[in-house]
Amino acid sequence: MSDGYATADGNGRATYYSIEYIPNANFDGRDSVVGASSVAQALSAYRTKYNAAMTLASACSLNIFVDFDSSSRKLRVKAKVFKVDAFSNARLRYAIAQNKITTTWSHVVRKMLPNYSGVVIPDTLSIGAMFADSQNYTLSSSWTPRNCNVVIFVQKDTAYTLKPVLRSAKSGLFPSWVFGDANGDSTVDVVDVVYLINYMFVDGPPPNPLASGDVNRDCIIDVSDVVYLTNYLFIDGPPPQRGCIWE
């Protein structure tokens, strides 16, 4: 791993997985693909493993919120883990990855927050409860923010090879969607109010991405967002806010 993009975080993760050869991809912490002669061969093998991992049920849900100031290059990330089934010895991990890198494999992990070890999720967290965490980081001037993504995942650490990822989520630094546009039709209107109500009360689909429904910036999607959006649409209330308030 003595290339120009090697980092302490990358080396730490390689040790974590006992990786000796590159490329080596681990899927859901349960299965791996070691080596490939081309990008096409690697992607084909990766897709098979990825599809298999996606069929597994998860013991938690994960909401993420990403805010980036392009002038200061300051990145703020917040994650909320909701425990829906029993698990223990888990950590919340954040990775800043950049694609369109001029290398054979075209993307690299620039930084993990706060480092590759991640943040411990307390074993005392009860089923139905939430664990929240936030991280801040200033991007290097040599990185291209438009090509960066934040990948956040909950991983169960074990003393063995099996290190399952319980849930993961990804976001770019620049939203390609509109805050308040809960149903994703590029327009903020009464349909979005109905969409949020259905999501909260009649098991309708969630906003996509989830943060588009957090119109009042409190990092939670609840009835207060419905009220806020209704006020905006019908009684000249303030417009949907960009990004949740960080504490």
Question: Could you please describe the fold and organization of this structure?
Answer:
The protein has 247 residues and is an alpha+beta fold. It has helices at residues 8-16, 39-53, 190-201, 223-234, and strands spanning 24-27, 31-34, 60-69, 74-83, 90-99, 107-113, 119-121, 130-138, 148-156, 165-172. It is 19% helix and 30% strand. A hairpin with a 7-residue loop joins strand 5 (90-99) and strand 6. Helix 3 (190-201) runs antiparallel to helix 4 (223-234).
Rg, alpha carbons: 19 Å
Low-confidence parts: none
Under CATH at level 1, the class of the largest domain stands as Mainly Beta
Q: What's the count of strands?
A: 10
Instruction: Name the structural class.
Output: alpha+beta
Average the pLDDT over all residues and give the rounded result. 86
If helices are DSSP runs of H or I spanning 4 or more residues, what is the number of helices?
4
CATH H-level superfamily of the largest domain: Immunoglobulins
Largest sheet: 5 strands, antiparallel
CATH architecture of the largest domain: Sandwich
Helices and strands, in order, run as: HEEHEEEEEEEEHH
User: End-to-end distance, in Å?
Assistant: 37 Å
Which bin fits the share of residues in helices? 10-25%
Classify the beta-strand content into a percent band.
25-35%
User: Which of globular, elongated, flat, extended, rod-shaped describes the shape?
Assistant: globular
CATH topology of the largest domain: Immunoglobulin-like
Total domain modules: 2
